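re the bet — no i am not wrong, look at it urself. input seq straight from the record:
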Amino acid sequence: MSYNALCPLETDWKLFRKNLPIWQENYMAQLNREYQGILAQKKSPSAIFWELEKRIRRDKTMTGVIGDGMSRSNMSRQVFELLHEGVITLEDLSEFSEEFQETVKWVMNY
């Protein structure tokens, strides 16, 4: 494998910076729908509150939510985390370079 995952191509980096906010907004919309499901449960208000609080505490640490620390050197790691968290799919990477896509597929299959 000739692609250096720690130093993505400039075109891949620009594409990542462009797409990350969109991916995060879509993911947060999904989370909000899940939170609405928690709020609609037939449980006591306090049980719902604490379940929702626990869930939000966990979710706010996910790569699909946080935008801090975005750098070219950690782009590949963030992509793997986004894939693992279900924020994106391999299909979302179809515009990225062939080398980057191959590297991601290779790592995901490893």
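see?? Helices lie at 10-39, 45-59, 75-85, 98-109. told u. also DSSP finds four helices and no strands in the chain. so pay up
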